[in-house]
User: Which sequence fits this backbone?
């Protein structure tokens, strides 16, 4: 197996850094234990509106917090230990002809392969080379992430609304706190910079105002990304099986993006094994992956879109929180709609 990766690890990435426990049985089966790398168990959710109305609910399944700095680095090391070959180069283009892939890199190296999995994230130069539909759409979301030192409940992930977006806060390894927020570009434009935006917009929410007044940043500069697209994407593109954000983004408020990436990789690997063992055609492989991907993720993506639209309405969010305080079972059911059950091996 060959892995072409443009980044050098360890490295910080914009991410909520929370994973649902639904993937743990699968990872344990593979010999992966994130708690050996410092992951923090999380079993509560706090949700607040711009005006400060809030609720605290036990998560139906729970999850854990770990930074991408640690997680990606350790997963890469583990893959290499199992025989994966790493080529640290940027892929410039992928072409398919005569039932074979040709992959070219920025360093003008060429590789041929029978199968290719695309796991190149939310937005890549390859998306434009492949002329994927979402690249022609206007994408007016941006995200910012940084680590902080401070005091929060270690077993809680919190989601705080502000005008134009929402901010997630949770503990990761070594007592660090990950803060990651998503906002519409037009909400950010009137501000001079990230610090100005946080003080003028995020801190309208009293919970965020309290956090930022007491916490100490651990980054010289926050990490940010823009042009985030939530539109539909094909799960198979140019005969490549797409995994993770390359296949589709779920809204970050669901806290399930990284778990979906793990699950999609599991689906792809199982389809490839069946392709090899049962002498499937390439068309049968692609159709099977499309079907499994759709069956596994369609409902949670739909639920995530509905929740995202609801949380963009300040008054609806505030009223909804007040109502849901008295309906914990309904709240847990809503959370479950954006997650799956523990993976069966």
Assistant:
């Amino acid at each position: 197996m060959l892995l072409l990766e443009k980044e050098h690890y360890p490295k910080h990435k914009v991410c909520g850094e929370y994973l649902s426990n639904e993937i743990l049985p699968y990872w344990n089966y593979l010999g992966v234990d994130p708690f050996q790398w410092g992951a923090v168990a999380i079993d509560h959710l706090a949700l607040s509106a711009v005006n400060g109305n809030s609720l605290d609910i036990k998560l139906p399944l729970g999850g854990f917090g770990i930074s991408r700095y640690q997680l990606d680095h350790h997963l890469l090391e583990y893959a290499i230990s199992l025989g994966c070959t790493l080529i640290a180069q940027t892929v410039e283009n992928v072409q398919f002809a005569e039932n074979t892939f040709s992959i070219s890199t920025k360093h003008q190296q060429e590789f041929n392969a029978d199968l290719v999995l695309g796991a190149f994230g939310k937005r890549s130069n390859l998306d434009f080379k492949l002329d994927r539909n979402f690249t022609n759409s206007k994408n007016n979301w941006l995200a910012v992430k940084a680590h902080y030192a401070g005091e929060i409940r270690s077993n809680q992930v919190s989601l705080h609304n502000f005008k134009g977006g929402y901010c997630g806060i949770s503990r990761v390894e070594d007592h660090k706190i990950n803060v990651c927020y998503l906002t519409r570009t037009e909400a950010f434009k009137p501000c001079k910079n990230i610090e100005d935006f946080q003080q003028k917009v995020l801190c309208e929410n009293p919970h965020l105002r309290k956090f930022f007044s007491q916490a100490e940043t651990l980054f010289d500069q926050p990490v940010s990304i823009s042009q985030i697209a939530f539109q539909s994407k094909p799960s198979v593109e140019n005969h490549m099986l797409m995994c993770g954000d390359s296949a589709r983004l779920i809204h970050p408020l669901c806290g399930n993006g990284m778990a979906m990436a793990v699950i999609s990789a599991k689906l792809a690997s199982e389809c490839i094994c069946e392709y090899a063992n049962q002498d499937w055609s390439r068309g049968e492989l692609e159709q099977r992956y499309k079907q499994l991907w759709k069956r596994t993720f369609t409902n949670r993506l739909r639920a995530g879109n509905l929740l995202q639209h609801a949380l963009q309405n300040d008054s609806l969010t505030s009223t909804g929180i007040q109502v849901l305080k008295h309906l914990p079972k309904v709240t847990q059911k809503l959370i479950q709609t954006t997650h799956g059950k523990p993976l069966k091996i």
Remarks:
- The domain at 2-336 is CATH 3.50.50.60 (FAD/NAD(P)-binding domain).
- The chain has a mean pLDDT of 94.
